[in-house]
Amino acid sequence: MATEQSQPGNTAASVQPTIESLQNGDRPFVLADSLGQVVSINQAFERTYGWTEDQLRGQPLSLILPGAFQMSHQLGFSRFQATEQSTILAHPLRLKTVCADGSEVVSEHFILGEKREAGWVFGATLTPLPGCMETDA
Amino acid sequence: MPEASTPKDETALVVELRRTLGRLDSALGQISEGLVLVNAIGQVLWTNASFDKFVGKSRLEILGVDLHGILPLNIVGEPILTIEQTRGGLLKTVFVTVILSDDPVHALEIEWRPVVTEVPNPLMFSFRDVSARISFDELQQKSQQIEDKWLSTSKKYIDLQSKQLALAAMVMKCPVTGLPNRRGLRARIAIALQQLRRRPGLVTLLFCDLNRFKEVNDSYGHQVGDELLIELGKRLQSTLRPEDVLARLGGDEFVVLSPGVLTPMAAVQLAERLQAVVSKPWISQDYSITPSMSVGIASTDDSEVTVDELLRRADLAMYAAKGSDERSITIYDNVIDAQVRRGVLIKRQLQSAIDGDLLKVDFQPIVDLKSQDSIGFEALVRIRDFEGAWMAPIEFISVAESVGLIDQMADLVLRRCLAVLKLTENTAPDLVISINISPMQVCREGLAGRMIAIAERYEVDLGRLAVEVTESVLIDRPRTVINELNTLRSVGCRIYLDDFGTGYSSMSRLFQLPIDAIKIDRSFTAGLLNCPRRRVVVESMIRLSLDLGLDVIAEGVELEAQAEALLAMGCLKGQGFLFGHPAPFPQPAEILVP
Hints:
The complex is a heterodimer. Chain A is built from four helices and six strands; from the N terminus they run βαββαααβββ. In chain A, strands 1, 2, 3, 4, 5 and 6 form a six-stranded antiparallel beta sheet that branches. The longest helix of chain A is centred in the middle third of the chain and has 17 residues. Chain A is α+β, with helices and mostly antiparallel strands. The termini of chain A are far apart. By secondary structure, chain B is of the alpha/beta class. Chain B has three domains: 150 residues, Beta-Lactamase, CATH 3.30.450; 160 residues, Alpha-Beta Plaits; 241 residues, TIM Barrel (Alpha-Beta Barrel). Chain B is built from 20 helices and 20 strands. An eight-stranded mixed beta barrel of chain B has the order 13-14-15-16-17-18-19-20, surrounded by four helices. Chain B has a five-stranded antiparallel beta sheet with strand order 2-1-5-4-3. A five-stranded mixed beta sheet of chain B has the order 7-8-6-11-12, with helices on both faces. In chain B, helix 14 runs parallel beside helix 16. Chain B is elongated and about 125 Å long. The chains are: A alpha+beta, B alpha/beta. Chains A and B meet through helix 4 of A and helix 1 and helix 3 of B.
């Protein structure tokens, strides 16, 4: 499969992670399409945040983001669609994640974007940081 | 009938709308102004990248929070906008200038306006960095004023809005006249130049400088000076069209900005009207002052000319007008540019020489033509130009006069001469040193008093000092000149009439002048041997002067034959290269005084 990675923020000289490598890891993972709609989540995600894949598939990613971040997320997504430039991809980002029960957990998001034949896809691992209150927002 | 849209079409439309939003967001992120949209309760709905950078936060941190809480503090440690100012409901555009720091200078113009989308309406703020448009001195002064006011007030809370409006007003306006100040003017010139891009025309500046305003302040005090400025501001304003802008740059400088098509002739006519309205006597309480002013004009039809350059041209033209008695209105051109640039450089050299006591004073001997012994010296001040060459006195004296350095320079020369006279009071008690006094100096009251006071400090007999004045100052014998010269003569100081024969003095009027000697101009001495007519004139000059009891000194004596001819005509004293070039004062032992 021909892919093109977008990692403008990543300057590491080491091996670059891919969505596939994230997907095959054991951390909570979510995959979204070019519209920002959830395509799939893994079992670790289900266990950690309480959502089922059926609940999220086809839903906008903003469903798992606190209300305060949703506008920023939508603007960033729109901007990426226009410019294919992003400042948040490929580096850790502390954000709150909304669980199925409505609670919010500070998690470290690591998001990658790849341009595939059918369009852009976005994969992210989310690592909960229990007890952590600070976010990048 | 239009076809019903399918879900796929709808999705494509959403994608395209998102792209449009993204493009808009990206484009607005590239402009230098910080933009922020807030809702009716002051929460941030949207920002551009410049605003994010300005507050040093990511958009994730900004969206949804209160704008008031993320703004920096101003120079006195207060929020630059109040909570009320950041909330909706406003129905008009508001504009303030805030100072964040003075070193380095950081100033912002904040403009906000309602966005008519919903009720109560959101607000769009723009933050523009205007640090470069504020002069550092001006800013320091303003910030100090504000700080002082802040420290001295016992009130804990001063309405921030009124304070900032006052600050903006102070920054944009002259506190004395209420007219736009330099910064306000610059902003308006910039707008006028921008408009040239859309609509061809001319932007004209008339740089007006009051003549001798310093004397008003010195004589009547700054309070009266300020009142006069206010009055003149009103008079000037009354002469202008509504679209013209009058600004006060500080001191005694006003500038008129005239947009639109103003031909050179019309600009001169406007300048004449301004001069006419200014020159009406101003009577206030016991004072009656008749002001006058010089005007420099600069126009451009080029929108790419910078504000500074246009102001510089007008300033140069004014400077040239100021240096000219006849033309107190001057239009900028390249020749003026070169002349004034040189004048500015000379002024700098002059100021630096005065400040550093680097003026060089040379002395050229005046001799007894019979014995060729020195009986006196003429002191000649010398200054190097910026390339190291000696400048002609005529060049720097006129600059010194026009920039007000002539008195300082003359006092320094006088002190040097008095020091020499003091040094030689025992070895050469009959030695006389003559100094040149410029027309401007001798026409002003107080010269004699100042010279006498300085001489008293050196304890030097003024009978050993002579003052050389040119014929021009004695034309019509203005009362002030006569009084000053008579005062000097009353304490023994001699008066020499310099460059005699080159001016307008009638020989028949010599007896009316308060002088002790004439100095025959070098041009007559040079023609003495080979021009019979000149010889006759010189003979007549000498005979008449001697008959009137005046001493005679011939300048420019370079040949023995000239000295002999002068002696034969009865002239007993001479000066010229034959006897010595201007040079540092000789050691006392070298002076041969009979």
